[in-house]
Backbone:
């Protein structure tokens, strides 16, 4: 795992990435809510119209081949994520300044919960599985149905 460049630890980087997400979501016209403390299953709430979406925010700077590996696992103490507690994951590829907005059902069906995000190349949706989610803020305007 690479060092947490420019930050004392990964928790501090996570707080910074959440702030980046909040700023970008506000620019996109969403209302944003931040739960108090660290005990919620999600990092940020996003309100759009009558919908309330639970967002889990992740980040990566770990380059591996043609992309960046991003882990979507909870911290050691946290309960496992589920589609009943998280609606979307927002993943920020820090060196490329690229956001991915991915439905939780897509992330949670993978075995390892580690995804390769490839913003360094032109999107090839048939080759790179998650490029259709790059900058896919519009998905939050049409949220998935909850189970």
Residues:
């Amino acid at each position: 795992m690479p060092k947490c460049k420019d930050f004392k630890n990964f928790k501090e980087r996570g707080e910074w990435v959440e702030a980046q997400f909040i700023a970008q979501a506000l620019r996109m016209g969403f209302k944003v809510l931040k739960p108090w403390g660290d005990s919620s299953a999600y990092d940020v709430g996003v309100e759009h119209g009558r919908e309330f979406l639970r967002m889990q925010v992740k980040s990566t700077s770990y380059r591996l081949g043609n992309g960046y590996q991003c882990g979507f696992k909870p911290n050691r103490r946290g309960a496992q994520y589920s589609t009943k507690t998280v609606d979307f994951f927002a993943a920020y590829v820090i060196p490329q300044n690229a956001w991915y907005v991915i439905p939780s059902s897509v992330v949670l069906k993978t075995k390892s919960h580690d995804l390769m995000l490839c913003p360094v190349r032109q999107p090839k949706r048939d080759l790179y599985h998650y490029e259709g989610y790059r900058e896919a803020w519009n998905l939050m305007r049409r949220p998935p149905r909850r189970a």
